Each structure stands twice: as C-alpha cells, then as structure tokens.
Amino acid sequence: MALGKVRTLRHALVAAVLAGALLPVVSTEAGAATTLPPGFVLRETDTGLGQYQLTDFATLPGGSLLATAKDGRVRWLTETGTGGKTIATLPTRPDGDLGLVGIAVAPDYATSHSIYLTRSINVTGGFVMRLSRFTVTVDPAGTPSGLTGEQSLFEVPGFYDVHGIDTVIAAADGTLWLSIGDSADFTKVDPGALRAQDVNQPYGKILHLTADGKGVPSNPYYDAAAPASAASKVFARGFRNPFRFSIDPNLGLPVAGDVGWTAWEEVDVVQRGSNQGWPCWEGTHPISGYSGLAGCAGVANQPPIFEYQHGSGTLQGNSVTGGIVYNGSSYPAAYRGVYFFGDYVGHKIWTMKYDDQGKLTQAPSDPAPFTDIGGPVKFAAAANGDIVYADILSGKLRRLSYSAGNTVPVANASSTTDPVTRTVSFDGSASVDYDNDPLTYDWNFGDGTTATGPQVNHAYAAGTETFTATLTVRDPLGATGTTTIAVAPGNHTPQLTLTTPGDTATFAVNQQVTLGAAATDAEDGTLPVTWTSAVRHCPSEATCHAHPGIGGTGTSFSLPFTEHPDSRMDFTATVTDSAGVTTSKTYTARPRQHRITLLGTQPAALSIPVEGGVSTALVTEGASFDVDAAPLGTDGVSKFTGWQGGPATATWIVTVGTSDLTLTANYATPIDQRYDADAALRAKLGAPTAAEVTDGTVRYRTYANGRLYWSAVGGTKYVTGPVLTKYVAFGGHAKLGPPTTDTAATPDGVAQYNHFVNNGNVGSIYYTAATGAHAIYGEIRKKWAALDYERGLGYPTTDEAGTPDGIGRFNHFVKGTNVGSIYYTATTGAHAIYGEIRKKWAALDYERGLGYPTTDETGTPDGVGRYNHFSLGHSIYFTAATGAHAVKGEIRKRWAALGWERSYLHYPRTDEYVTNGVYRSDFQGGYITFTLASGAVDRPW
C-alpha cells in the first residue's frame, strides 16, 4: 500500500476510530529509540499480516479482533493476540494506496455477524472502489472461520492508484460513514482533482449513508426524489485524501486528517456541508498550479483546526494520521478528552484539545510527546480507553498504556544459532524499563537450565530439536515482564542467493526491474521464495518513507520501476525453513535521474508542483509531470506568452527524456507588448538593436530609430530623433526620469517634444530645427508652462543652466525674433523676462547689474507700460514712447512714493545717470535727482 507521499503525495493510511475494544495484548515492545511521556508503556501484538500489509482492525463482541491486509487478507486474532488465522482472502487491487483498507463491525454483530469492508477491485478496463457488507461465518466453537454473502453498498470507478476509498465507520444508529479521496494524479496538476468540489461526484468527500447505501436525509445536499444520488450522500467536500477519520463522541461530527500535497498536512473538525478547499487550498494556503484554475474561482475554504508543514522538524511531518479522542480514565487527567493523532512518515503522535464548537484550545506540543513509535495508520480504543494503533511498518498493533506508580518493564528477546555446536546466543538488552530503572535478566532455556544477564550463550544437548526459551526482566521493586522465543539449536539457517541487475544499475519509469533468487536449506532442501516490494520515497534522506508495493512468489520477480518522484524501490526475497528460521535479502533499484531546470525570459515564479514548487529538480527518466508558469512576472507587468518549444498555456505536461532538460517560459515585458501590438510603431522605430535593459525601476530597449521606455509612473513610451539624443546626453532617466509621453509634435507643427517625470518633478525636452533640442524642468518649466509653453515665450534655446554667481538657474527662449528668459533663485522664485525690458537688463549686465527678476513682465494699471522688478531694489519700465529704462535706488524710492507712473512724472525717459556728482533720472513730466546732502528731490520740467 503506497502509504506516504511523493513529496507531493503522502498517501498515508490515516487512522479512524472503531467503537470496539482491544483487550490485553502480549508481546514485545517498541524499540529503544522510542520516546514516551513518563509512565507510558508501549506494548505490541503481532497480527501475522507482515510488514507493509496491516491496514485496519476492528474488535468483535467478546474482545477478539479482525485485522485487514492490503493484499486482501482478513485475519482473526484471539483477545490475547495468539492463535490467529486467516479467514478470507478477497480479490483486491493492491497497487499504490489501494487494496483492502477499511473495516467496521456492525452494531448488531451479535445477531447479524455483519461487517463492512472497503477495497479496490480490478475489473475489465480498470478498477472500481467498493464498500461491501459481509457475513462472518463461524465454526462449531463459535470462532470466525470465513466471510460470505457479499452485498455491495457503494461502488465507483477509480482513476489512479491513489486516494481511493478509505475509512468506513458503522455508527450505533445503523448509518454508515465513509471517506473517499479525489482519485487524482499526484504527479502533476490534475484538473480531475476538482471532482472534490463537485457535490454530484463522490470523490474527495466524507459521505453519510443509510445501511443500504443511500444518502441520509439530514445530509446538506439530500434530494428526497433521488436518495441514491451522489449529492444526497455528501456530508462534506473538498478533501484530498481523508483516509482515516473518527466521529467525535461529543460533537457527533467527523474529525479527519486530510493528507496534503506540496507543503501542508491538516486536521479538520468537519462541519455539515463544509468545504475543506482541496484542490484550490491546502490547509489555509492557495496551491500553485490549482488555485488559478477556473474551477477554483471563488472556492471557499473551511480552515483546518490545525495544520503543520512538511519536513523533518519537531513540529513537522509528511503524512497526517487522523485519530481519536481519549475517553478512558487510566491516563493522567491532562490527557482526558484530548485528541490523539499522528504522522505516518514522521513516526510520531501528537495530542491536542478543542472545545464543543470545534475550536482549538490546546495546540499540539513541540516536540511531539510520542516519537519513533512506528507508522500509525489506524487509531482505536481498548476496552479501558487506552489508545491502540495499527503500525503498518511492523504489521503489529501497538497499545499505549499508563501506570501511575511503578511501571512494569517490558521484555524483548532475540537469538542467533550456531547449528554445528548447537549453541544459541540470546540477547535481551533491548528490554525496556520506562522508569529508567536497572533491570535483572533471568533466562529459562526450556531444557531445565537457566542463566542470568542481558546477553547469554547456551549449548543445547542433542536429541531435541525445538525449545521455547523464556526471558524474565525484573526492576528493583519486583515488577516483572516476560517474553518467549522459539529456538531450534540444530537447525541451519537457509541459504539465499539473489541475482540482481547490479548495484550500479539505474532505471527509468516503467523499465522492468527483474530479479532472481535461489534458496536451499541443509535440512529442507529447496525452499519457496516470497517477494515483497516497496517504493521508498525520499523528499530528503531525513524523511524517507515506504509505500508498500506488490509481492509475489517464485524464483524470479519483476516489476516496472515506479513513477513516484524522488523514489527508489526495495525488492526483498524471503525464505523460511520448517523450523521457522527466516533469511531475507533486499535489492534496492535506484532511479536514473536528470535535472530539470525552469528559466524565464523575465524573472517569474516557475514551479514543478510535484517537487514542491521548486524551479529545478532531479527527476526520474521517463517521468511525466507538469510545470507551471505564473501569468505575470515578478515585476507584476510582464505577461506569460508561452513556453519555448511548448504550449501557450501556463501549465505544460512534460516527460523526462534521456538527458537534462531546460524549459524556458517566455514573458512579454510592457515594452514587448506595445511593440508587438503596434505595427505603426514598429515601422517608426525599426528593428531592435539591443536587448532590453533594466536600470532600477526603469526599463528601455534600443531600436534602429529610437527607444522604448517603461516605468510604472509613465507606462511604455517611445523617444526618438534629436529629443532622444539630447535625453541620453543630458543623463536620461537618471536626470529627467522616464518619459510620460511619446515623442510628439507641438500644435504649431514646428517642434518635437517629450515630457518626463523624476520623483514627481516634471521635465521636458523640446526640439526645433532652429533652436536644437533643449531640456527644461523644475521651477523654470513650471513658469514656462504657466506662461503657455511655446505660445508664450517660445522655444528654449538653452538647457537649464546656472548663473556665474552659482545662485540662479535660467533658460533662454526665442519666439520669432524675440528673445526671452526665465530666471530662478530659491529666494525670488522663477520669473520671465523678455522683449525690450530683457534687452535693457542684458545691457545692464543681467543679474550682476540689477539682480534677479522678482516679477514676471507685468503691465501697468493704465495699460500703457510694462515693467519688471529686480532683487537689488531696481526696476525696468517700458513704454513704446519712452523705451525701456532702469530706475534704481533712492530715485526709485522717491518715484514710488509719488505714485510711480501715476504721478506727474509718469514714465522714465532715461536710465539713472550722473552729472556733476548728482544722480539723476529723467521722466516724462520732470526729473529726480539724488545727492547725499539733499537726498532724492523731484522737479517738474
């Protein structure tokens, strides 16, 4: 049974509660690496089903047990675990996760002898998954002896050898609870997994059925007109593989472990009509490759009560095993009402607690309290409430018991035999005292002799071929544990020779792995060979786990190599002689792998979902899987356009060939998108001459006749001709920022321009044949724009430049034959000066004469004159009659005091001049003189 998951697949046999009890068990304990809380003891009962076979178990009235095997065997065990026998071997399809996986005992078993089994069965053209009711036949002593009268209650086709029909629970009210996985491909994104969302299909659901297999009327989608319809049977949906679940005795609701795919395992308290989200969600996380499917649009997700991540950490695992609520009284009070669950791959058991609303009140502890406890695939309760679970790794039932005082030690014994000397070496050192007390070891060899010590040797006398040896271990308080071991002193170990493809051989998917075996025994001659196989999935070496596979018998055995990613295959040949001595040899077939690498023409999220969403991985030759490209690059604007050499769709199913493989996803940047969509633009710019360049937040690409730029603030815009030449020479986007317009013509058709923006500051470059290309930006550009751009001052004839004193900035302009300027300082702001006033200012040595303009050129109130004021306290006034003249200092102050041009003096006719040591300016109505002695004095003509 493929229990565990291929990184993306942890097809764990997750455990369900059965109402029956398990009476005291006998046998050996867990290995020395097992860690349990103080006072707990772990004891075992061997079911006789063997490694990788035990899937489920149930208790019959009276305390005996029925256990199921993946290969179809149903085995009966006495209440003490001894005297077991196989009562039936049913036809099954044991591939992958499938086989005989579930059993429940009818509540009226005492009178009906009915049980329920879930299994997969081969049929022509495929297989079906079936829930059946059987009648247990009994022998004259009342002991179960067989199964008869199969009645199919539920049957659906299967699609893949994973996530099949799972747990069955026979409730006290006569109804049945049933879980079934999505039956979807685990190696790739499979749209078939969306069956889990469709209430008209039973896959990926927990179902609630009547005893004859119809829907229970209280189900959320029940249709009284069609009680046998799939929707009528659905209690909850959106599961990937709810292999094991239980019914909480207080809530009356299923509590399920749903096995995850790429990263998360979850435990769900399942409400009526809830949607657990698969395949659109894994736990509380949207799933790469699935969440973008149309069928996932708007899918709600009921959050799990608890989720944990894949890995080998203390609070991590790889295949959740749903469990049961402890309702006994022998454990400490802290464990009462606590939910026990585990992880099949992580070999651990956690506990947690939730309230009567299904809300978590006590999270699982980190680390887990029970570790290295085997591979739990089913939880149930003993008669006193003790937690019991099926360990598929050993084929044993394991029981957690607790002693409040001194804990009874557990004996464990093994032996090896030298038949030539009839000497048996006994080893009891694996015995356990959970109180960590020192133990004494007493051996009874079964021939009347004894010895003490953890490891002893004993030579048996000739004449008797079999003995039963007994080991008793005792702690300092006198508590004892006992185990027995059968020995055959004169028996030779069977000899087994394995013929293999060799340790260096590697295999592609579906390539046959063929082995041979020959077995002989000194006492028995040729022995029959039994084969078992397992797929060992290793997402990492720390998280390797086995998926039990198909077995067989004979001197040869062959299977196709597994398609499970990150996996190898173990083939084990076993022979057992008449004395019960066993020899086994294992051959490991390893994959022939090649590296798959995903690249994008732009940075983007590219993933191999089956490998956990990475963008590069070693994958087995011949494996088919999907790769997935995000619709947008990591920049949020580059669009996926297709795979090079592959489809235009984001998902591509590929098969690994005989060499490494690199797959490239094409992304069209915003520059590509505009260029490719605009034929006129392509004709204007010509062919690209260089690759696209990314410089910080700006991208650009050079073409024969220009460039395309992209930025988040400006979008995709082109710059051409002299404007581009100036832009690049001026410092490009580092100085002016990216373009916010294409290169365009001004309304008068004379110029070309582009606008730019740099951190919110707008700049421009304007070009005319007469003026050339010049940059204008900042406060000077704002002033130019306020004066109506080129329609006001004309076109710039300079770039913005600094004045010689380092204080000001300016641009010069020309409109026709008229020259203008805008000057800026931090104290005066930006102001325009042009025409005759500018000529006068220039004649007076610009800012070195009168200072910087503090006003734009402005008209006087009478509409006759024009003027500019300047920072040194001077002004220039102009009229057509008087021309442009500067008024300065004390003379300007006197003129201003008289009312400027509104006074009797009117407008100046001269600049200020000096005659005979007197400063003087002449006006239309008179003049003003200034001396230090007399100050400023005005006089009429």
TrEMBL record:
Keyword Acyltransferase carried by entry: no
**What Pfam families does the record point to?**
GSDH, LGFP, PKD_4
> By its UniProt entry, which InterPro entries does this protein fall under?
6-blade_b-propeller_TolB-like (IPR011042), Glc/Sorbosone_DH (IPR012938), Ig-like_fold (IPR013783), LGFP (IPR013207), PKD/Chitinase_dom (IPR022409), PKD_dom (IPR000601), PKD_dom_sf (IPR035986), Quinoprot_gluc/sorb_DH_b-prop (IPR011041)
Signal peptide positions are 1-32
| GO BP annotations, alphabetical order | carbohydrate metabolic process
SUPFAM superfamilies noted in UniProt: PKD domain, Soluble quinoprotein glucose dehydrogenase
What UniProt keywords apply to this chain's record, in alphabetical order? Signal
Q: Which SMART domains match?
A: PKD
Record domain PKD: where? 437-487
Write down what this protein is called: Sugar dehydrogenase
Organism in which the protein naturally occurs: Amycolatopsis vastitatis
- Taxonomic classification: Bacteria, Bacillati, Actinomycetota, Actinomycetes, Pseudonocardiales
